[in-house]
Amino acid sequence: MTIQEIMKGLQQDGHVTKAMGGQVADDILPYVKSAHALDRLGHGKIVVIDFVHCSFPYVSPSILLKLQQIRNARTKGDEDLIDDRQLFDIKNIISSYFALLKKANTISESSALHFDLSIEATVCKEMIHISLSPCLCNTEKSVILGVCMLTYSARKRPGNALVKLPQADEHYEYRHDGWVLAKNSHLTNMEKVVIVNSINGKSIKDIAKILSVSIVTVKAHRTNIFKKLRVKNITEAVQYAEDYNLI
Fold it and tell me: Over the Cα atoms of the chain, what is R_g?
């Protein structure tokens, strides 16, 4: 299965409008320009996806360079960049998200789908975090154009799909092939300080000194953070907080 086959599958499932001439071409230009501007500001690696024509009107140069480096380092017989199982899961997740978009009064088009995947890089597998936001839909809420932002993920396993809702206290988590509404994780002010200082490279001892508390107290805050975010270590917690704008 390829990425293009996934998009064609979304069309067959009825979640994406099939191509109807060139009427979409003029509409996507502003989004391509915006993606290019965001790219220059360093906001992750960006891909604009035209789901109607199964194409990519914009791909960050850094992504193209990375892909070329991986191709140059690979030999014949190497595994695919993304295995078929993951591609199948990605297709199901995106299809299910687009179906969720179409449900009346369920979620708005300004929501964003997040998930993690692993790729076969030059030396070892790398975890990538994907954020997919619909930016152009038709009157039936079929997605015409989407913007993907790619960043490195600290997660150990692919999946972890969720839909972030704008200005809401809830989000959707993908469990057992379906979406489940869940409450957002809220960090206390002290927990946010611990996260921010961890991002800045501060150790537990440094953070304890900054906050004028004991090392035991800082460790307790970190444990609470791990439980709330359902992560295993501070690296994953920092990545989660950045991906979902918790700080």
Answer: 20
d(CA 35, CA 60): 9
- In tens, the pLDDT along 145-171 reads 999 988 888 777 888 899 988 877 888
| Angstrom distance (rounded) from CA 184 to CA 245 | 11
Q: For 30-43, give one letter per residue: b (16+ CB within 10 A) or e.
A: ebeeebeeebeeee
Coil, helix or strand for 79? coil
Helix 3-12, helix 84-102: angle, nearest 10: 30
Helix or strand holding residue 198 (H, E)? helix 189-199
Q: What is the dihedral of CA 27, 28, 33, 37, to 10 degrees?
A: 120
Which is more confidently placed, 3 or 203? 203
In angstroms, rounded to a whole number, what is the distance separating the alpha carbons of residues 71 and 218? 45
* Close Cβ partners of 207 (under 8 Å, ≥ 6 residues apart): 193, 194, 197, 198, 218
* 66's tokens: 């990375």
Q: Which residue has the tokens 């994406």?
A: 16
Question: Hey, what are 215's tokens?
Answer: 């090392």
**Nearest Cα to 187, choosing from 244, 138, 122?**
244
Read off the tokens for 183: 């409450």
* Closest to 102 (Cα-Cα) out of 139, 65, 70: 139
Q: Tell me: the pLDDT tens digits for 17-50?
A: 555 444 455 578 888 888 888 888 876 689 999 9
